[in-house]
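Q: Could you fold this chain for me?
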Amino acid sequence: MMLPEEELAEELSTRAPRAPSRLRVVARRFFRSRQGQVGFAVLVLMFLLAFVGPLFSPWSYTDKDFTAFLQPPSSEHWFGTLQTGADVYAVTLRGMQKSLIVGLSAALVSTALAAFVGAFSGYFLGWTDRSLTWFTDLLLVLPAFLILAIMSPLFGAGQWPLFVIMLALFLWMVTSKIIRGMTISLKQREFVQAARFMGVTPVAIIVRHIIPNLSSLLIVDATLNVSAAILTETSLSYFGFGIQPPDVSFGTLIADGSQTAVYAPWTFWFVAGLLVITVLAVNLMGDALRDAFDPASARRRG
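A: Sure. Below is the predicted structure, expressed as structure tokens.
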């Protein structure tokens, strides 16, 4: 039989509202922000357009209409046609799919690299720190565009995952240095010291304690890296060093459309507009996420 004090304590514990998790707090701040709402909604629409939009068109990105070369938008070809007779709507959405996949994949890989290299460097210090710092500094001074251009023959049809990896290799270094400095500070915190005294291995401490405590920075970095990766891929593909034919991306479509943009604007402006809208939506989300994790920064800017 429980004592009255125990019954009262149990009742109060059941009635006491649980403190919302950090994730819920951040999500509430994010969706309360106007730019977060707009960025998220627009990006969702871009994904739906890219991956669901082709289902509503009778034309595939590989189809050619030999009766409609360089035709303006019509009921049959919603965005018009290219010089080859390809449907602009179909090839634009295919290019959008590829650019979104490349951007997201490269951002995730580069952020993961930054997290682990920076955390290992800052936690172990010594020769590990010197080796990883030397490698990071080396990649910082290498001409990324030139290296990717030289390796472009390897990015043939079906080899876009290799392109994603190479692209990600040149996006993580600055964030890694920030992670290193923050890890050195976190290493002195009580929860890390307690884990070490309990015999937890260094790798487990990094994975379970250090990196989760840097999640706010990593999430914002990953979001902003999406737009950086999309723009880098677009620039490389524009000059023929990125996604290779017969596949298409924003960069290859803009390169082709720029030659006919003056007298056939539909070959250029649809894809260029979608690129601007997509990158703008990602940047809006990145800014809103940063403010959600650090409300003080929003007040300082305001």
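A (continued): Confidence is low (pLDDT under 50) at residues 1-9.
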